[in-house]
Amino acid sequence: MPDRDPAPRGPVWVILPTYNEAGNIEPMVEALGPKLKDRDRILVVDDDSPDGTGEIADRLAAADPAVEVLHRSEKRGIGPAYLAGFHRALEGGAGLIVQMDADFSHDPAYLPRLLAASEQADLVIGSRYVPGGGITEWGRTRRLLSLGGSLYARKLLGTSVRDLTGGFKCFRRNVLETIDLETVAASGYSFQVEMTYRVLEAGFEVIEVPITFRERQTGDSKMSAAIVAEAAWRVPAMRLGRRRSAG
After folding, report:
1. What is the DSSP string of 61-108?
2. Tens of pLDDT, residues 49-72
3. Domain 12-246 fold
4. What does pTM read for this prediction?
C-alpha cells in the first residue's frame, strides 16, 4: 500500500463542474465559503454554459480570491471536466481535492465530515449506500437504477465499496499524482466508477462516510441514455483491462 502522511499538506480545493447551473452556482459558492479556511479554494469548471453560469462564476471570482473559474470551450462530459480540475488543483498546490455536484445534490454541510475522514484514508466517498446514508425525493425506478448500477459495478469489479457511482469525494494529493490521469477514459458518470477503481487498484485506502443525496431543486438533470449506455460497457472494459494487466 502506498505511504500516507498523517496530515496532508496544502489547502483544500473544491471542484465544481458546471453546465447550465446559473440558478445554483452562486448559492453553492456562498454555502461552501464558511466550510473552508483562508488558503482553501473553490474551482468552478464551466463547459461554456449557454445560461450564463460562467459569467456568474467570473463575477464571484472577481469578488472573492478564494474562487477561481476554469472555462472550457464546449460540453465534453463530467469526467474531462473533473480531470481538468484535478490538474489545476495539483498545479495550485492542493493537499486535498474535493469533487462535488454544484446543484446541491451533495450538501455542503457534509464537507467537514469528508475532510475529517481524510485523516484516516486516501480517498473518502460520501456514500448513499452505507448505514446512515440515503436518498431523498427519488422515485422507486430511479432508486433501483442507481442501486442496481452500483451493485453491478461492485460485483463485476470485485470490490466492497458500496457507492461506486457516488460523486462526492475527497482525494489526497498523492492519489491523483499516482494515478495516470491521462489514461482515465470515461466521460460520463462511469467516470466515478473508474476513478474509485483506479484508486483501489493502486493500493490506496478507501472509506465511505454516510451522506443523504438530495434531488436537485433548480435546473435540469444531466443524466441521459448515452451516459447509461457508456457505463454499461465501460465497467466490463475496466475488468478486462485488469485481466490483461495481470496476464
Report:
1. HHH-TTEEEEE-SS---HHHHHHHHHHHHHHTT-SEEEE--SSSSS-G
2. 999 999 999 999 999 999 999 999
3. Spore Coat Polysaccharide Biosynthesis Protein SpsA; Chain A (3.90.550)
4. 0.88
